[in-house]
Amino acid sequence: MTRxxxxxxFAGAAATVLSACGGDADAESAAGGATxxxxxxxxxDGPRIxxxxxxxxxQVTIEGGAITDVxxxxxxxxxxESVEINARAIPELRDKVIExxxxxxxxxxxxxxxxxxFLESIQGALDDAAAAx
Length: 133
Description:
Layout: H1 3-20, H2 24-30, E1 42-45, E2 49-51, E3 54-63, E4 66-75, H3 80-100, H4 114-132
Antiparallel strand pairs: 1-3, 2-3, 3-4
Helix pairs in contact: 3-4
């Protein structure tokens, strides 16, 4: 298998795993979308998720019951490769989550550590926002 094919296969597998990890989000999507969840307005910090590339923690802002912003409180290590990947992946994940109004989005290609950890932290923040709603 070529390196490109291997990377694509891994990215596809990561996206499949991420969608399978969505838990209730998958059921909500099938039942009409995660936007049916009522989020209480406020700023919510997700749990800190740690993996081989460091810690990841997201902060989610809810206004008018909608996700309006997602920021990184912590994003991996200060290693150059980590910084480079996170500089690309986190803004893309932010945009996907705001558009979908859910953490049930596809991983960013090439961010096999960042995507699952950051999305898990986002989901935790959204769970808190839903519980408060």
